[in-house]
Design a protein that fits this description.
Layout (H helix, E strand, L loop, with lengths): L2 H26 L13 H6 L6 H12 L1
The structure holds zinc ion (ZN).
């Protein structure tokens, strides 16, 4: 393996790691609310897997109860 090969391999590794990191970050919960498209606070996204903001989750919860 010459230097050019090694460089491109390192580049690929870094890219794959970045993609994997991105996936774990966004794979847990949606970044934006499914209904109002507001940004869901990070604390909420870490706390539970959701694709709704606090307000829409409450509306959805009430609707599910009926
Ligand atoms: Zn919402």
């Amino acid at each position: 393996m010459d230097n050019a090969d090694r460089a491109s391999t390192l580049e690929n590794d870094a890219r794959e790691r970045a993609i994997a990191k991105h996936h774990t970050k966004t794979g847990i919960s949606s970044l934006y609310c499914r209904f109002c498209e507001e940004l869901i606070p990070e604390a909420r996204r870490k706390l539970l897997v959701t694709d709704l903001c606090v307000d829409c989750a409450m509306i959805e919860e009430k609707r599910n109860r009926i």
